[in-house]
């Protein structure tokens, strides 16, 4: 941290699930900011016969590809499979998801798009034939599987985890928002925006809204939030840089 660091002395609301927020909180605190963790979503692994059958088919080599559209998907697989049982080519949505897969499986994904969005992943996906396992969140938007089908594949979408939204933010976050002492709010998914809109009832001051990517930013604008900056690239490092841009002149 330097005296000119734009994050020094700022209070940043982190809306990621608590168990996924440690790296972002650490980077904020290293730069002199106060990170206030106020999860606006909770991720719950799915227990279903459909997911169990899909995982068994994956281990049996019945899929040509599996798509990993979040780190949570990697965690769900790791809880159900040995890493060597992923008998398919692997497409990861971004570097964070790819890194989680590397740590677990000990190998690189076969495909990571240059832009870290599901739309870019679908665009980068090759044409071909065979089954593709798309293990995703229950609230993940439509369109991804249709894009793969248009390229000749047979996608199977199964819910890997559910996203729950709290009725209220933690008391400290509610009070800080009501006092107008929050300088910035970070969003790392469209569902975290929806969770915030559902749980935040009194937001005062002018907190800078910073989003990890264009899909998240579009959701924020749809809920009436003014987006101050969007991460580029769509990573935690990019999010920190976007925060610095948004707060540099504040």
- Our Rg estimate from Cα atoms comes to 19 Å
Q: Give the uncertain stretches in residue-range form.
A: none
Number of domain units? 2
Strand order of the largest sheet: 2-1-8-9-10
Q: In words, what does this structure look like?
A:
The chain is of the alpha/beta class. The protein contains 10 helices and 10 strands. Strands 2-1-8-9-10 form a 5-stranded parallel β-sheet, with helices on both faces. Strands 3-7-6-4-5 form a 5-stranded mixed β-sheet. The longest helix is centred in the last third of the chain and has 13 residues, at 236-248. It is elongated, with a radius of gyration of 19 Å. The two termini are 18 Å apart. The model has no long low-confidence stretch (mean pLDDT 94).
Chain-wise SSE layout:
Blueprint: E1 11-14, H1 22-30, E2 34-37, E3 42-45, H2 49-59, E4 65-68, H3 71-80, E5 89-92, H4 95-105, H5 118-124, E6 131-137, H6 144-150, E7 154-164, H7 171-179, E8 184-187, H8 190-199, E9 208-211, H9 214-222, E10 227-230, H10 236-248
Question: Key features?
Answer:
alpha/beta, five-stranded mixed β-sheet, Rossmann fold, five-stranded parallel β-sheet
Question: Summary?
Answer:
The protein is α/β, with parallel strands linked by helices. The chain has ten helices and ten strands.
């Amino acid at each position: 941290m330097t005296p000119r660091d734009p994050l020094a002395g700022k209070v940043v609301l982190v809306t990621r699930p608590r168990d996924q927020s440690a790296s972002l909180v650490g980077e904020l605190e290293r730069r002199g900011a106060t990170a206030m963790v106020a999860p606006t979503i909770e991720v719950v692994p799915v227990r279903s016969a459909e997911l169990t059958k899909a995982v068994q088919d994956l281990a049996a080599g019945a899929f040509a590809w599996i798509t990993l559209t979040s780190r949570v998907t990697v965690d769900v697989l790791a809880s159900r499979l040995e890493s060597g049982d992923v008998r398919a080519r692997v497409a990861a949505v971004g570097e964070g998801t790819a890194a989680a897969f590397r740590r677990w499986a000990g190998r690189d994904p076969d495909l990571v798009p240059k832009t870290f969005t599901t739309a870019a992943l679908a665009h980068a996906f090759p044409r071909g034939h065979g089954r593709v396992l798309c293990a995703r969140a229950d609230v993940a938007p439509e369109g991804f599987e249709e894009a793969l089908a248009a390229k000749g594949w047979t996608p199977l979408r199964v819910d890997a985890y559910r996203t729950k939204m709290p009725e209220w933010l933690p008391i400290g976050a509610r009070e800080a928002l009501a006092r107008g002492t929050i300088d910035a709010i970070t969003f790392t998914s469209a569902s975290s925006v929806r969770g915030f809109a559902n749980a935040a009832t009194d937001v005062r001051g002018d907190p800078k809204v910073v989003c990890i990517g264009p899909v998240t930013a579009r959701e924020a604008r749809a809920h009436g939030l003014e987006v101050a900056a969007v991460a580029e690239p769509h990573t935690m490092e990019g999010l920190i840089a976007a925060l610095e841009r948004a707060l540099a002149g504040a």
